[in-house]
Specification:
The chain has about 180 residues and is an all-alpha fold. The chain has 7 helices and no strands. The protein is elongated and about 80 Å long.
Length: about 180
């Protein structure tokens, strides 16, 4: 199945599919749990109610599995299908969901446009500026902040390997070249 780009599918369409899912997943699960638990397990294997563009996948999976029930001529499958239809999950309701899914999957996908060379250069320059700022800040923090425990929490120092440090009265051993407390 192709990935779904929710930015091109209207929120209204996703909301309609989600509303369908919220009603009919519960109805189908409740209807089958008592009389056809094996069929319920088969229909809902590895799917659950979801939100956003993911709702398209869960509803499509459930509908495909119900279609398998329609094709299955066994007494169990036909009994489960009859119960679902009695509870309202009939061919017309499933058709409405299929129509919404068709509309959602027919929506144009956002193309991945390559970045322009100017945009890439600007991004690299911004990364370099941020790295320079971080190095300045980290060096200053290592020099000014005397508490190694605080420097560790700030992410500019690391505990010594193998050495046991004790925090008594805020005093701990220091990093190489850093001020001690």
């Amino acid at each position: 199945m192709c990935p779904i780009s929710s930015s091109r599918i209207t929120k209204q369409l996703i909301s309609r599919i989600d509303a369908w899912e919220n009603i009919w997943f519960d109805v189908a699960s409740a209807a089958l749990t008592r009389k056809f638990p094996e069929t319920r397990a088969q229909l809902f294997l590895n799917i659950s109610k979801s939100s956003g563009a993911d709702v398209i996948v869960s509803v499509k999976t459930l509908l495909d599995r119900i279609d398998e029930l329609v094709a299955d001529e066994s007494e169990r499958a036909q009994g489960a299908l009859a119960l679902l239809e009695q509870r309202g999950l009939n061919a017309a309701i499933r058709g409405e969901a299929r129509a919404m899914l068709l509309e959602a999957t027919a929506a144009p996908m956002d193309p991945q446009l390559p970045e322009s060379p100017d945009a890439e250069q600007a991004r690299l320059q911004a990364v370099d500026e941020m790295w320079g700022w971080y190095k300045d800040w980290a060096t200053t923090a290592r020099t000014v902040v005397r508490s190694k425990a605080l420097r560790i929490k700030m992410g500019v120092s690391q505990p010594r390997r193998g050495a046991r440090e004790t925090l008594k009265g805020g005093s701990v051993s220091s990093d190489k070249g850093a001020a001690t407390s």
